[in-house]
Specification:
It is a single chain. The chain has 79 residues and is α/β, with parallel strands linked by helices. The protein has two helices and three strands. Strands 1-2-3 form a three-stranded parallel β-sheet, covered by helices on one side. Strand 1, helix 1 and strand 2 form a beta-alpha-beta unit. The longest helix is centred in the C-terminal third of the chain and has 12 residues. It is globular. The N and C termini lie far apart (46 Å).
């Protein structure tokens, strides 16, 4: 269901993915499709979780373009 503005985010029940590793290497080739599928299934906000500095920088640059729908968490795991 699309809103009157034509947004894929729509007006149906909204979900939040609170732990998504969508900036990891396995999603590089189809990143846009992954985000599109999430939106189509009602995911309204995605918390992008990263564990590498470069991955976090890329994710933050991306999330800053649409802060209403994306946020970033950068976790550091002790060795």
């Amino acid at each position: 269901m699309r809103s009157s503005a034509g947004s894929v985010w729509g007006n149906r029940m909204k979900y939040i993915d609170s732990h998504a590793h969508i900036f990891s290497k396995e999603f590089e080739e189809d990143f846009d499709a992954v985000v599109q599928r999430a939106q189509e299934q009602g995911v309204h906000r995605i918390m992008i979780v990263t564990t590498q500095a470069e991955e976090a920088r890329r994710a933050m640059a991306f999330a800053q373009k649409d802060p209403k729908h994306f946020a970033v968490a950068y976790g550091i795991h002790p060795e």
